[in-house]
Amino acid sequence: MFFIFTPMDLPIFFLDNYSASDILTLNEDTSRHIVQVLRMKPLEKLQLTDGAGNLLTAEVMDGHKKKNVL
Q1: pLDDT in tens, 9-42
Q2: What is the CA radius of gyration of the chain?
Q3: N or C: which end of the chain has fewer CB within 10 A?
Q4: Which of 42, 31, 43 is closest to 67 using CA atoms?
């Protein structure tokens, strides 16, 4: 018998525009989804895309449901 362990895919969120800063603050709807629906906690990772082929891996820094900081 073989067990294959694969990492769970990271959730991907669309981000309208972003700057190349180290800290991103998400809007209220996305923040609420991350905290209340997915129940993500600080230090968990997710991915962000702008729809133009850019993909960022980010880490939840603050689990606030109105202004989530990555």
Answers
A1: 888 888 877 766 778 888 888 888 888 988 989 9
A2: 13
A3: N
A4: 31
Structure tokens at 61: 């820094």
Placement of tokens 């820094």 in the chain: 61
| Cβ atoms within 10 Å of 68's Cβ, excluding its own | 25
- What is 53-65 written as a DSSP string? S-EEEEE--B--S
Question: Which residue has tokens 């449901």?
Answer: 65
Reported residue count of the chain is 70
pTM: 0.72
Q: 38-49: buried (b, 16+ CB within 10 Å) or exposed (e) per residue? A: eebeeeeebebe
